[in-house]
């Protein structure tokens, strides 16, 4: 089983969307997807209501996810760790114990060649249109990642 972790700051906006969208694109018999935040701001909370709303608009229910903080043991649990932006990438790498840990971490948008800025915008302080933009960017990128991940496993 391939295990994938999506990581943003608070684990209530970007990473829950990426978690839900990627999970919907991969067979659960071969893949496990989860999400976490580098900060402890929202531990135990469900995703932001705006993330839940935009996901629901496109047929995904992410309302049962709960925010948790990234921990060092995630390097042992997960094969791929995707950081939503450079700040979160740096925070994750600062916890790495060795090069193997570092090798598991990538920027989420790294393989999306249609995007120049590889930092996923954080919609938290924005409005519903910001969440819509992030959803569409996550959807596009998860399609790329899903094809790549399925290609590695078949």
Describe the structure.
There is one protein chain. The protein is built from six helices and four strands. The protein has helices at residues 14-25, 49-57, 74-77, 86-93, 99-103, 128-153; strands spanning 2-8, 31-37, 80-83, 105-107.
Instruction: State the domain count.
Output: 1
Largest sheet: 4 strands, parallel
Specify the helix fraction band: 40-55%
Q: In terms of per-residue confidence, which ranges show pLDDT below 50 for 5 or more consecutive residues?
A: none
What series of H and E elements makes up the topology? EHEHHEHHEH
Provide the CATH topology. Rossmann fold
The CATH class designation is Alpha Beta
CATH hierarchy: architecture = 3-Layer(aba) Sandwich
Rg over C-alpha atoms, rounded to the nearest angstrom: 14 Å
- The first-to-last residue Cα distance is 12 Å
**In CATH, what is the homologous superfamily?**
Response regulator
